[in-house]
Each structure stands twice: as C-alpha cells, then as structure tokens.
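Sanity check

After download, print the first record. It should look like this:
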Amino acid sequence: MTPDETVGTTGAMKDVLAQAAVDAVERVPGVAFLRPGLADLVLASYASRDRRKSGVRVRPGKVPGAWQIEVQVVARRTHRTLDVTRAVRDAVLGVAEAGDGGRITVTVTVTGLI
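Expected structure tokens:
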C-alpha cells in the first residue's frame, strides 16, 4: 500500500507513511537495522507488534497536511555515516512525497554503528 492509496483518516495515513518509510530505509545500503526503542522491546514481548516500525515515528506537522517523520537507524561501519544519513532521508522523502502531496520533514538519527 502506498501513501496515495490511502484517503482515510490521519491514523491510517500515519500507518501508511510509517510502513513506506520502513520499506524505503531497509533498502538503503549501509543501514544495519532500524533502532527499536526500549518501550518497543518491552511491549513486543506482550503484543504482536511490527518491530520494524519501531525506528520510525510519524507525526502530523504543525501545519495541516504536513508530516514529521523521524527515523533512527544503526549504520554499518563499512559505510560513511553521512552518506547513509543522506540516503535514508532521500529514500524516505521519495516515498512519502510520492503520494501525500503535503509538506514532509524527515529527521534521521544514527544511534549506533556496527
């Protein structure tokens, strides 16, 4: 499902953007994995959640129709961190802007290296 296939609520759009971002990030060379948060690790043992989404946070922006996407990844040491960060940002912007048409802000944080 792509962002342009969803016409529903903000919650549905949020889920579609998050999944599109996850799929885009997983294809970026140099990304080892999305960083799960502590709450995600604890809650994953109690509920069947998609742990892949744990490194992506999507929130409505301050302006109607705008979105803020935050991505936290662990990068591979064999790749330049700056290049990985830029590639992740470009990949997420590419899929997010493809269907939404609203203003998208993407913030990428590399939380570790392996």
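If your output differs, re-run the checksum step. Summary of this record's structure: The longest strand covers residues 104-113.
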